[in-house]
């Protein structure tokens, strides 16, 4: 390991601009002649749009246009799409209701746009929006799963009778039935996985420009995947052909999944920029983020586990209702199916699993992938089941887990996934040691003497990352391939540009990816630049989500580097009159092994571009590209243990300790990895204790601001104690697995298991607010 | 419209703004100081914190006119040329930022916290004091470390002056 190579805790290259206020986010972009958009949104969860009168608004100062949903339909702008086709158990395709970018006829959730005002200033657009009169005819709304599936419920889409998106299943129903018939013990649990609002700190924004001379569009947007945005905007939304559309995602202030999707506002800004002949800026405010950013989770499940007399798991049966909101967002269909049910085996040998998932439309904001996406829901379910089983069987929860751990790899689960490698005993042992698990009973007794209820809770998660092998996901219904691309340009002076289709919005790629180059070439990272987030610069890419950037994007970089190095070695060998096989790369030099002959990288690069003395037949230049398609998912796994105290008088929870032992394979920059875990844990703990999107029965989001939706604050969280165990991922040359989502996947079960342990009542829903905990204690 | 005269990062400025203009919009839109961010509309998140006459203020909660005659420091004015403020350096060295969006407000609040508490900062106090600044990326772990680290650095720097 060099000082800046793989494994080094290098401080981030990108930080200087952020700490000095020089970051460049979408709302910081200004264009000559820029106008401002403000959307008019439905105050009703379900209503007919009878008419829109903009006469008075058009007379107001600075107003350029009021554009409506009907105009967007008339201009043949495509409806929003869902990119993953799921087939119900009866063989029928998923039932997708039409979702126009602005509603011409019917609104189906509070906040859905019906029109947009374009004006000279943002305030003028807002003022004029107040003067637009929209005539709504209110319809009854179905605000949650229960209300949407009951007989006689209001119907959202004519395409989806009974508000059912799909009724899907996975696994072997007969084998599970057989397992339960042989069970010595059966454990059952009803679980709710609460609805969350992602709340990246930067609200979504778009700056769109149509260049009439070139017939070319430019869109600055808060995206995790600008190339996917360009593809969808051109191929499906019909706004501009791909070669006439440049999408730039500059600095982006957090994503967590919510900035994967191509939302109506970006579509409308782009469409409107041509319509009004002016650049158009839209910047969402926090209220709009609450109402229109895709929400996460929102499952209601029933789980049953069969165990034999030796406490070995025989089978698992799960029935889940998943809330989709009012429309199917871009990847929504995959989240409660292939990203959820495929992980229900957890870290355990479970010979038979059967899962049914019913997708349900409700008059709420669309739901899609949020940090972890399906895997937190699976992990929460299985880990609460393990804890519940241990309590019911009166065995130690750690021992029950250990007795059922998968120990031989590769391991084929009954739900598609083939785990390549892992060591679950190593991570649970590390976590138990870190928290002094053996000493817990004494600590609990002491807390009791002080009037506090102390609990300890485990969570042993596994996730599937490195999303994903294109052929595999294609066979499961995905509309895209999930490879990644990279291009390495060694410039004539020896500096290096790495162009990647991954997008960094907090993950630190500008540092981590440089470390891969530094490791291979022995050059300082100051000599390397990472270029990303611009479809005019980077050839193509599938973007950043599902903890895929390093395992997939990083591997594409390695593959491109291998090509660069192979060519550079040929050039060096030619210049040094040596055999190519004798050339080694060290400290930025190409050396003839066993001699003192060498040539520095800049001289090799210069030779490649001057082309005065290259091997016969070699093309000039030193620039290579690679597309990398993974062969399997990666499987990060780990063990989290939470120790906390509950005040029985108030129901308030206080952390004593939170330990995490993760196996992410090889760590490129441990400092950045730890940061990712911290952030994930905060979101998992937030889900467990604080966060919950609440709709009233008319479909109004009553938690639509930071005053009402409890974001984790510094004083809500403990400091975390992290450690790592390592099994190298055999599926990629870096041996990496991905670390971005682990915390959010594993933390919530650890917290709830600890609280239910403390209070001695297993019936507790998230968020476990003091009120809920107090009632769980006192009835 | 009114003319608002104030000092921003040591420079006297005079800006014509609508009376309803907030300080944050004057900074971002009129002065192009886009390091100060807007993350909410309820004065909760703290991404917009600047210093007004040496005190941390949420610039989304102050009218531009209220800042007339004041001395405003934004994140762009915190470093001395190329030399980072100890708080900026501590955020970088402790990996106290990820996406960077909350960071300017977080740093400006943190400087104010250290000023107010002097050397008497501990983890609990820092966590309590950061209640008005929301970060979605870091889980605060490294932010707290950075603030405590910077408190030490600022003490040393002060002693040296």
TrEMBL record, chain A:
Keywords: Molybdenum, Oxidoreductase. Residues 20-140 form the Aldehyde oxidase/xanthine dehydrogenase a/b hammerhead domain. SMART domains: Ald_Xan_dh_C. GO terms for molecular function: iron ion binding; oxidoreductase activity. The keyword Oxidoreductase applies. This is Xanthine dehydrogenase molybdenum binding subunit apoprotein. Pfam families: Ald_Xan_dh_C, MoCoBD_1, MoCoBD_2. It comes from the Bacteria. Signal peptide: none annotated. The keyword Oxidoreductase applies. It comes from Bradyrhizobium macuxiense. InterPro entries: Ald_Oxase/Xan_DH_a/b, Ald_Oxase/Xan_DH_a/b_sf, Ald_Oxase/xanthine_DH-like, AldOxase/xan_DH_MoCoBD1, AldOxase/xan_DH_MoCoBD2, AldOxase/xan_DH_Mopterin-bd_sf.
UniProtKB/TrEMBL annotation, chain B:
The keyword Iron-sulfur applies. GO terms for molecular function: 2 iron, 2 sulfur cluster binding; metal ion binding; oxidoreductase activity. The keyword Repeat does not apply. Residues 2-78 form the 2Fe-2S ferredoxin-type domain. SUPFAM superfamilies: 2Fe-2S ferredoxin-like (SSF54292), CO dehydrogenase ISP C-domain like (SSF47741). It comes from the Bacteria. Keywords: 2Fe-2S, Iron, Iron-sulfur, Metal-binding, Oxidoreductase. Pfam families: Fer2, Fer2_2. This is Carbon-monoxide dehydrogenase small subunit. It comes from Bradyrhizobium macuxiense.
């Amino acid at each position: 390991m060099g000082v800046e190579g793989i494994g080094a805790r290098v401080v981030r290259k990108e930080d200087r601009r952020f700490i000095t206020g020089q970051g460049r986010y979408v709302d910081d972009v200004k264009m000559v002649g820029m106008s401002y958009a403000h959307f008019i949104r439905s105050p009703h969860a379900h209503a007919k749009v009878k008419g829109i009168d903009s006469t008075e608004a058009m007379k107001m100062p600075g107003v350029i246009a009021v554009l409506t949903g009907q105009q967007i339909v008339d201009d043949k702008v495509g409806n929003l799409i869902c990119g993953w086709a799921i087939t119900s158990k009866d063989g029928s395709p998923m039932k997708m209701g039409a979702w126009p970018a602005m509603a011409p006829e019917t609104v189906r959730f509070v906040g859905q746009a019906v029109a947009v005002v374009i004006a000279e200033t943002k305030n003028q657009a807002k003022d004029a929006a107040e003067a637009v009169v929209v005539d709504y005819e209110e319809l009854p709304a179905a605000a949650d799963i229960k209300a949407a599936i009951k007989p006689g419920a209001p119907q959202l889409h004519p395409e989806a009778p009974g508000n059912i998106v799909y009724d899907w299943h996975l696994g072997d129903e007969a084998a599970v039935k057989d397992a339960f018939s042989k069970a010595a013990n059966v454990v059952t649990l009803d679980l709710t996985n609460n609805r969350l609002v992602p709340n990246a700190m930067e609200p979504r924004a778009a700056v769109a420009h149509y260049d009439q001379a070139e017939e070319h569009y430019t869109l600055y947007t808060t995206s995790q995947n600008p190339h996917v945005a360009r593809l969808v905007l051109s191929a499906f939304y019909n706004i501009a052909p791909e070669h006439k559309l440049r999408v730039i995602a500059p600095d982006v202030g957090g994503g967590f999944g919510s900035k994967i999707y191509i939302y109506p506002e970006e579509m409308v800004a782009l469409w409107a920029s041509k319509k009004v002949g002016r650049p158009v800026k839209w910047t969402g405010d926090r209220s709009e983020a609450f109402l229109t950013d895709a929400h996460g989770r929102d499952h209601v499940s029933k789980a049953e586990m069969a165990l034999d007399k030796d406490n070995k798991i025989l089978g698992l049966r799960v029935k889940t209702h998943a809330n989709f909101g009012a429309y199917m967002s871009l990847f929504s269909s995959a989240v409660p199916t292939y990203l959820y049910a495929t992980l229900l085996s957890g870290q355990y040998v479970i010979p038979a699993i059967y899962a049914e998932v019913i997708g349900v439309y409700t008059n709420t904001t669309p739901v899609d992938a949020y940090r972890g996406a399906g895997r937190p829901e699976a992990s929460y379910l299985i880990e609460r089941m393990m804890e519940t089983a241990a309590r019911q069987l009166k065995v130690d929860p750690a021992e029950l887990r250990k007795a059922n751990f998968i120990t031989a790899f590769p391991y084929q689960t009954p739900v598609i996934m083939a785990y390549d490698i892992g060591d679950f005993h190593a991570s649970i042992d590390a976590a138990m040691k870190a928290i002094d698990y053996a000493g817990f009973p004494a600590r609990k007794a002491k807390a009791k003497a002080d009037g506090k209820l102390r609990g300890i809770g485990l969570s042993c998660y596994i996730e599937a990352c490195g999303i994903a092998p294109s052929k595999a996901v294609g066979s499961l219904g995905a509309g895209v391939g999930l490879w990644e691309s990279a291009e390495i340009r060694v410039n004539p002076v020896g500096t290096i540009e790495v162009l990647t289709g991954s997008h960094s919005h907090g993950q630190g790629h500008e540092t981590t990816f440089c470390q891969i180059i530094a490791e291979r070439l022995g050059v300082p990272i100051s000599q390397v630049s990472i270029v990303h987030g611009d479809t005019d610069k980077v050839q193509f890419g599938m973007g950043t989500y599902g903890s895929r950037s390093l395992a997939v994007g990083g591997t594409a970089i390695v593959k491109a580097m291998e090509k660069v190095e192979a060519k550079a070695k040929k050039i060096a060998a030619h210049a040094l009159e040596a055999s190519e096989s004798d050339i080694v790369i060290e400290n930025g030099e190409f050396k003839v092994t066993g001699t003192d002959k060498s040539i520095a990288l800049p001289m090799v690069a210069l030779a490649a571009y001057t082309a005065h003395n290259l091997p016969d037949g070699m093309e000039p230049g030193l620039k290579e590209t690679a597309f990398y398609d993974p062969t399997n998912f990666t499987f990060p796994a780990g063990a989290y243990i939470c120790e906390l105290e509950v005040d029985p008088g108030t129901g308030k929870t206080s952390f004593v300790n939170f330990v995490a032992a993760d196996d992410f394979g090889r760590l490129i920059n441990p400092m950045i990895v730890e940061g990712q875990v911290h952030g994930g844990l905060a979101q998992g703990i937030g889900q467990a204790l604080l966060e919950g999107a609440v709709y009233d029965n008319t479909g109004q989001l009553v938690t639509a601001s930071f005053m009402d939706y409890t974001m984790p604050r510094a004083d809500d969280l403990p400091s975390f104690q992290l450690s790592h165990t390592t099994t190298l991922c055999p599926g990629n040359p870096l041996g990496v697995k991905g670390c971005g989502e682990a915390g959010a996947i594993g933390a919530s079960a650890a917290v709830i298991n600890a609280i239910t342990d403390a209070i001695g009542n297993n019936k507790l829903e998230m968020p476990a607010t003091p009120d809920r905990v107090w009632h769980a204690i006192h009835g | 419209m009114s003319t608002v005269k104030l000092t921003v990062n040591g420079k006297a400025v005079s800006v014509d703004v609508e009376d309803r203009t907030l300080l944050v919009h004057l900074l971002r839109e009129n002065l192009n100081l886009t390091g100060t961010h807007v993350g909410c509309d309820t004065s909760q998140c703290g991404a917009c914190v600047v210093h007004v006459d040496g005190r941390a203020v949420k610039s989304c909660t102050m009218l531009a006119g209220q800042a007339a005659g004041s001395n405003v420091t934004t994140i762009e004015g915190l470093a001395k040329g190329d030399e980072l403020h100890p708080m900026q350096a501590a955020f970088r060295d402790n990996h106290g930022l990820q996406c960077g969006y909350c960071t300017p407000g977080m740093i400006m609040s943190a400087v104010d916290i250290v000023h107010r508490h002097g050397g008497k900062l501990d983890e609990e106090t820092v966590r309590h004091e950061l209640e008005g600044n929301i970060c979605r990326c870091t889980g605060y772990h490294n932010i707290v470390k950075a603030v405590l680290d910077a408190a030490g650095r600022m003490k040393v720097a002060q002693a040296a002056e």
